[in-house]
Predict the 3D structure of the following.
Amino acid sequence: MKVLKYLIMSKFFSKVLSRKLYIYLFLFVVTLVAYAPALRGPFFFDDNIFIEHNVSVQNFDLKQIYTSSTTAGSGLSGDNFYRPNGQAIFALLTWLFGLSPLIFHFVNIALHATLGFLIFLFFSDLGLQRLYAILGSLLFLLHPIQTEAVSYISGISDPLLGLVLIGTLILFARGLEGGGGFSLKYWVSILLLTLVGFFTKENFVILPALMLVTLIYIYMKGRAVNWKRGILVLITVSILTALYLWARFTIFNFTSDITGGFAIPTFANVYTESLSIRLITFISIFYHYVWMLLVPIGLHYETPYVAYDTLSTFSGVFGFTLIFGGAYLALLSLSHRKGIFFFTYSWFFVALLPFSGIIPTNAMYLEHWLYVPIIGVVFFVVYALQISGEEFGASKSLFLYVPVIVLCIYLSLTIYRNTDWADPIRFYQNELEYGGSARIYANLGLELANRGNCEQAIPYYRQAILISDQYPQTHHNLGRCLEDSGNTTEATAEYKRALEIDPNFSYSIERLRLLEEKYERLTF
């Protein structure tokens, strides 16, 4: 406790608090320390599709990037990913530095740290003292659940989305509170950021709702001197959002329907075919969200894809109580003209709305879906700490010690989790502890094969095929390992099986051609 008290009361920390530049540098360094292990990580998982094998990225073809799906540059079709801003950054980094994973990781970490600083500014604008705003930024930056969005290179769209979203809300909040009203620069800046957000990630469509929540909160605090002009800005942004949704369903819709949301298409099943089941599932999985937020250990990428058809389960009752009990408390918060819980509750649920299942998704819940929603929770925690500190006085320094201890724990857990992201084999082996899909087994086999361990890779390929025999890549990769082991007969069978799944799978076509030429030379 004495050490913590010294750190908090030290001249160094006082100096950090004194200038925004120092605050940014402090947040950046702390974030870099937490994510340093991830800097050693290579490209893996979907990085090959989004970056390594994506000709649009490799050729810096911005026209192709902004007029086709994200994976079109890799020769894939049938998905509806459209996040061109992230792909444009990948293209720029490739052009400047080549395929250096360290640079790509560093950019993700820098975006995350910068978002932490914007959250500090936003929290300050909402009435938090600087010390508590910094604590809030650190809780956001260091929470282990954020690693999936930051340590995964292809996850760049989450921190990028957060930057544009919070930046827009800062301008909106300052326009509401400013004596001069919404000047032309505020209007133009907000509208430009809104347009940028649409090309960053689909769930930027939550912006109008979050603007409304922010307006109501600032109004309840008696600081929304320009609320009428704020409503005009909100209406304008809402119209732009409606136009974007129209364009996304038509011009920028790269599949025949919207199955799978605006991302990976899902197969027709009881979940995708029933809105009621999707909503029941959304309510039921709040138990998992709360658990990940409160106990961020045992983190893993893939989550169970299990639909719920009734609320008469523990998780269903929990989610129902949380949603509707929370809504009551939020309204009560408004009636008392404080609005703290209203802001937290509304922010969390609005930010999760794109993953509610109204449009089918390819997963039930994921860690990185909490990247933006957690901001509302963090605001409530640090605001409660500030109020408690003011009520009980400076002698009750427990209200500072506890979050600092929690931050130290988060820092340790985040560093540990990033050691998984730094080593694909360790990452995939961790996934297998929680079940493991065909994709995980196949990727682990590929990673082992790339390191020259085909003998170890073969069983993982076979297990992937046993779980789900629908991917030509797995058969092809298994065939390569068998071929390298001298078993050309089985290798040929695997290549042919890959072509049964996808007759146009060029890699297997080429391997069969080479094997045929080799056989003809030997028999000549």
